[in-house]
Amino acid sequence: MTNANLSHAEVAYDTNRMRQRVMRLGKLAVCLLAVMAALFTFSPTAFAATTTIIEAERMTPSSNYVRTTTNYDAYRSGGIADYFADPPSAVSISDTRTYAGRITNITVRTATYIECAGNIRMRVRVDGTVLLDKNLSNNYTWADQSVAVDIPAGSHRIAVQYYSGPTCYDELWVDKVTVTSEGTPAPTPSPPTTGEVLFSDTFDRDDDTFVPPWDVAQRAATDRLTTDSTVVRKGTHSAKFRVHGSDALAGTTNPRAQLGDLDKFCEDDDLYLGWSWYLPSNFPESMPSGSWINIGQIGFGAPWGYPPLHFEARGSSIALVNYNQNGGWRDVASFPTQRGHWQDVVAHVKFSKSTSVGFVELWVNGQPVRMSNGSTRQYMNTINQNASGCGGWLPTLYRSKGYWEWLTLYYDEAKVGTSYAAVAP
Q1: Closest among 91, 97, 82, 90 to 157, alpha carbons compared
Q2: pLDDT classification of 48: cutoffs 50, 70, 90
Q3: How much is the pLDDT for 87?
Q4: Does domain 197-423 have CATH number 2.60.120.200?
Q5: Which segments of the chain belong to CATH 2.60.120.260?
Q6: Could you tell me which of 120, 109, 133, 112 has the C-alpha nearest to residue 57?
Q7: What is the pLDDT of residues 367-394, one digit of tens each?
């Protein structure tokens, strides 16, 4: 059939179909041209550099010839350094972690003390391969030893090694290792939306007994630790800690009241702890010299001594403090104090004696807290290195004697579980 045999309507229909085909072809051509233009004008994306600082005192030593000190000078990163004290053979400190981008540079900040004319031979190894091999002369000031590298993204073990030294007494000091990599760090994964609650106390009872679910409730008198219906985060009651300046427990000096869920957090446990606390509007806004207020301890256990993790109220801020037997105390996080308001806290803790295995992540009022290393996760020991068993959790109001007559603190919604969602207040 030809167009001559078509009706006027059929001709119009056929002409319209042709016009639509031409328009579609035209759009396709434009798209193809745009794609070709993008291909031929492509330029490599510039990756932003990411810097990871590994404090030497947080690295894992291979020998007791590696020691930690705070006595070198005021210019250490973090106020602590490691040093290799005249070892008779090669010893090292190491750190293993995952890097989101290619590693392009490694810098080790060092100093030396050598009592003769010889050198210390230092090596930097990545996954066992020597990438920097350098002789260091006597230099009692900090200096950077750098090496350019090209290492794929992924998990890597970086080690700083005292390889050899002179016949006289010598020390190699290491402050920190700085790793430069491409790209931005992998985003912090969203907390799981499911999980199991392993321990819970919402304090919703008009009863001042706490055992169980807690293992211990320590107080100078019954009214120093009670359930309270006047200041509540959820439900009907909270736990009220009200401590007088004379409320030292038997055999101790400083006043306190505390609960304890003891001997529960063992090596390699990966758990979340959630709670809410309320600091009244009259809670100290400033701290007199020499005073302190401890409002919670995590990972603590026999033979006791100092808790590996504790929260310290410092007037305008609350600090999370880590205690390491080799390096003493250091602040690993800090966030503003909110007097007269409930603060919801979630701590994700990998429990370990090792400074390269244990870690903490922290959320306050649902927002991740930036740790002292600039990340939302920081590695540290979360159980004491000399622990004879597992660690525990102690909500507490524990403070120095002689500064305040009365202090009051409230806790609510205390939980331990396997996910953020399981424990978040």
Answers
A1: 97
A2: low
A3: 82
A4: yes
A5: 49-182
A6: 109
A7: 999 999 889 999 999 999 899 899 999 9
| Strand runs labelled E in 48-188 | 49-55, 60-61, 66-69, 81-85, 91-99, 103-114, 120-126, 129-136, 143-151, 154-164, 170-182
pLDDT mean across residues, the chain:
84
pLDDT at 5: 38
Matching CATH number, 49-182, of 2.130.10.10, 2.60.120.260, 2.30.29.220, 3.40.50.10090:
2.60.120.260
The two three-digit tokens of residue 153, written as one number: 């993204």
Calpha distance 206→329 (Å, rounded): 39
Contact partners, residue 135, CB within 8 Å, separation at least 6 = 119, 120, 121, 122
Positions of CATH 2.60.120.200 in the chain: 197-423
Q: Which residues of 327-353 are buried (b: 16+ CB within 10 A; e: fewer)?
A: bebbbbbbbebeeeebbbbbbbbbbbb
| Peptide bond just before 284 cis, omega within 30 deg | no
Enumerate the β-bridge partners of residue 218. 258
What is the rounded radius of gyration, in angstroms, for the C-alpha atoms of the chain? Answer: 30
**What is the identity of the amino acid at 366?**
G
C-alpha to C-alpha distances, 318 to 300, 376, 382, nearest whole angstrom: 19, 17, 18
Evaluate whether 394 touches 225 at the Cβ level (below 8 Å).
no
Q: Which long-range contacts (CB under 8 A, 24 or more apart) does 304-312 make?
A: 305/384, 305/386, 306/384, 307/384, 307/394, 308/380, 308/381, 308/382, 308/383, 308/384, 308/391, 309/349, 309/360, 309/382
Phi, psi of 236 (to 5 degrees): -110, -25
Length of the chain: 425
Strand ranges in 351-424 using DSSP code E only, listed in sequence order: 359-364, 367-368, 377-379, 391-394, 396-399, 406-417
